[in-house]
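Q: I have three molecules that I believe assemble together. Could you output structure tokens for the complex as a whole instead of separate predictions?
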Amino acid sequence: MIINVILGLVIFGLLLSFIRLVRSSSIESKVVAIDIMTTISSGLIVIFAFISDNGLFLDVALVYGILSFIGVVAIARYLEGGI
Amino acid sequence: MTNLLFIWVAMFLVWTALNAPLSAQKTIFGIILSFLIAVIANVYDKEQKKFKLKTFFYLIKYFLVFLKELVKANLNMARIVLTPYLPISPKIFKVTTSLKSPIARTLLANSITLTPGTISVELDGDTLYIHVVEGDKVENVEDLKGPFEKILREAFE
Amino acid sequence: MQYIGYFFLLIGAVFLALAGLGIYRMPDVLNQSQAGTKASTMGIVGLFVGFAFLKPLWAPKLILMALFFLFTSPIASHAICKAAIKRNKAKFILKENAFSKEGE
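A: Yes, here they are, computed for all three components at once.
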């Protein structure tokens, strides 16, 4: 019941940052939008683990968060001219 | 020697949190694995600083202050985002810090990012470049560092 | 116990929605990063603490994940901001003499 409200709010945030990702012109703001989107969808995976009552999805969310952090730092390093 | 013991216990706690109901096999494997990680980390640690218990207590105090500032920062940011005409006036300020050790400087920059209305753009030597959303409201530049510099100086020096 | 968990969940979800709204409304990169990083960190920590109250068996792993997000998301935003400042310095509104590095 209340979990539906929470799911709706989280998906609202995901949609707005997706619109920002499509419509922005500079590449840095696209990277910021991707960062926020991966954080929000990592939260979405945990909500799905709660709904389906399966603890294995927590590991998926943890690895997803680690990989998104490494990806964002690598892209920023590339834009800066370090690689 | 104290460092190795500390890393061993910390790594075993992380292993316990990741494999929540521990069986006998998992416990033995975790002890062996965390001991290997502690030995490897100890070999590559060049500075070999002493682990002090005082630092640990000050870090707990730092963490509580940090959580309080995080909640305050988010309420401030929610107020800015929900105002219809978007009251922002972004500016970049330059602040010097007096902290010496690299980990204290890193923690200072990290906590400035999560305090109200500020984000740390670059850390160059002992100079911090801070981006502020409501730049018109800043009167004293030293206030941007918040209460963190004092706590971190007590903890690491 | 259950009501505390749902309360934290609601706080987290509201802040995640505010992160999306903030990143949608702000004009340039630094302000977007400012709004997005703070609100999404608070939101994800609230969500994980709420689930830790609802499912006590998962609590250690969830708290570990919350600590991970708490300490890595400022680093990611700092890396992006540094790259943005280095690529186009003239576009941002600077205070006089605040960003004058030697030799550049």
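A: One point stands out. Helices of chain C lie at 2-25, 29-54, 59-87.
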